[in-house]
Structures are given as C-alpha cells and as structure tokens.
Amino acid sequence: MTQATLAPPAARQGPGPMPQKMVEAIDVMITRLISRTLPGDRRAAGVGAGVELSQLRTYVIGDDVRHLDAAATARTGQPHVRLHVPERALTTWIALDLSPSMAFGTAERLKADIAEGVALLLARVGIRRAGAVGMVAFGAGTPRLLPPRASKPGIVAVRRLLAEGVTPDGQGDPHALGAALVRLGKLARQPGLVAVISDFRDQEGWLRPLGALRAHHSVLAVEIGDPREREIPALGRLALIDPESGRRIEVDTSRRRVRERFAELERERRAEVGRELRRLRVDHVVLDTDQQWLLELGRRLR
C-alpha cells in the first residue's frame, strides 16, 4: 500500500502549554509505571543508578558506599552493594495514530492536538535521562518510522512529523494500528516503554501484536475521544461523512431512539476496548477533548 499524504487539520489548536513542573511530575509517574509493569529480569544493558536491581554482591574497594545494602550486610556479616539497571538506557517507542478520525474535535481541541501533546510529553520524558525516543506513525499506507534518537535530535524529529498533520478523509486503513504494532515489535528489541496513542476507532487486528509487545515491554495505551462521539444532540436531520472511509450517511437526530442507540453502541465499543486492554494487562488512560488533558493524564497515571 502506498504512503498517504498528510495534511494539518483546518481547526488545529495545538496541545497548549506544558509547564516544566508537570513534565517532571509525570516523569516520576512514568518511571513508577515502568518499574511496576516491565516484564523480565532486565530492561537495559549495563548497571548504574536506577530502580530495577541488577545484582547484589559483596563490596570491593572502589564501590560507591552509597550503594551499600544494609539488610544484606547485616544478614551476611559482610558489606554488600546493590547495582541497578540505569533508567537512562531505556528506549521509549511511541505508536501514534494519524488516521482521519484524529482530526475530529468539538470542544477545546481536536483529538490530534491532544495526541500531539501526549507524544511530545512522552518524548521529553523519554530523553530526560539520556534515553532515546522512536516513533511509528500510522493511519493509512505503510507505517512511518522514526528510528530511536537521543537528546535534541529525537525531539526535533518528533516535532517535524507531528507538524505534517493527519491522513485526509476517506483514506483510513482499518489495519493500520495492527500493522504499526507488528512493525514496532520487530524494531523494539530491548525492553522499554511502548506508548500507543490512538482513538482505537475502526481498527482491526491490533490485539495480538499488542499482547506480544506487552510480553516484553511496559505498554501504555492512551485513548483519545470527544464528547460528540459518545452521544449526539437532537439537531434534526444531518448528513455525516465517515472520516475513515469517506462514506456519507444521513441520520435523523430528532428521534430519541436513534440517539439512544448511538450512545449504546458507543458505550459498548469503549467498554470492549477497556476490557481487552485489561485482559492484556496494558495500562489504559482515557483523555477527552473537553478536558485539561495534561492534568487528567497526571491524575490517571497516579
């Protein structure tokens, strides 16, 4: 499949300000999430300052006395030191949804604006301790790859891709998310953090590759929605365009049964996404366009 051309949404607002204190607070929360959920014995090469124990061994001359383990020393009668896996060796991978439905928004921002903010935030957090950030952007056609980069080049590459916008209406691919996760699974060889930022709408075949990623990585799913996707007001007869397929439909929103059925189907869809993510033991955060997304993200990550 050929690569679709991206375009900035007409009503683009941007993610808004991201105060440094909030970035630092979320950095701590992400570190705790990784420590809690990363599978396996190791999450990076080498040893250093971090939160995951690499080994516990007897003290030798030259070791940092700050790493002495009091409990092991008391138990064995010999000085022991704790060596940790360094957090800075982690790579953060971001799977970013650029499908046409992300250009929708009826409140403070578009879904694409919030996705941009979350991607930038996670990229900043990912390189704070000299880590690296990579991205797989999907929506239509072949997933776009940004190989892992550290420091300023990593942020610059992410910003450049985000500035290109989303896939135009009618060019959506229902298999885009699944294909992106399969490709990411082949690229992300060392355990790290994988963040999937999407509205999870009209996508198929993503559960199996996401489960495979969860077996080796700490995975965070950030679902982005809009109030008008959950319920529709009584506005009379409307002609609507499905942004993913480009299909035009007409609906009479003055009929209460139509509005109730619409809300029911959306509740079922959202509940199904939540159930599957819980089954895969993936941390799940839901953000809406009518929220202060940065504050809500911090609350959900506690």
Please write out the topology.
Elements: H1 20-37, E1 52-58, H2 70-76, E2 80-85, E3 91-97, H3 111-126, E4 132-138, E5 144-150, H4 151-163, H5 176-187, E6 193-198, H6 207-214, E7 218-225, H7 227-230, E8 237-241, E9 248-252, H8 256-279, E10 283-288, H9 293-300
Parallel strand pairs: 3-4, 3-6, 6-7, 7-10
Antiparallel strand pairs: 1-2, 4-5, 8-9
General description of the model:
- The structure is a single chain.
- By secondary structure, the chain is α/β, with parallel strands linked by helices.
- The protein has two domains: 20-39 and 88-300, von Willebrand factor, type A domain (Rossmann fold, 3-Layer(aba) Sandwich), CATH 3.40.50; 52-85, no CATH class.
- Helices cover 36% and strands 21% of the residues.
- The strands form three sheets. The chain has a six-stranded mixed beta sheet with strand order 5-4-3-6-7-10, with helices on both faces. A two-stranded antiparallel ribbon has the order 1-2.
- A hairpin with a 5-residue loop joins strand 4 (132-138) and strand 5.
- Helix 1 (20-37) packs across helix 3 (111-126).
- The radius of gyration is 22 Å and the shape is elongated.
- Residues 41-51 have low confidence and may be disordered.
- From the structure provided, what is the oligomeric state, counting identical versus distinct chains? single chain
What structural class do you assign from the helix and strand content? Answer: alpha/beta
Please mark out the parts with pLDDT under 50 across 5 or more consecutive residues, or reply none.
41-51
Arrangement of strands in the largest sheet: 5-4-3-6-7-10
* Gyration radius from CA atoms, angstroms: 22 Å
CATH fold assignment of the largest domain: Rossmann fold
Strand content: 15-25%
Alpha plus pi helix count: 9
Q: Based on the coordinates given, report the CATH architecture of the largest domain.
A: 3-Layer(aba) Sandwich
Helix and strand pattern: HEHEEHEEHHEHEHEEHEH
Domain count? 2
Residue-averaged pLDDT:
88
Distance between the termini: 41 Å
What is the CATH class designation of the largest domain? Answer: Alpha Beta
Q: Which word captures the global form? A: elongated
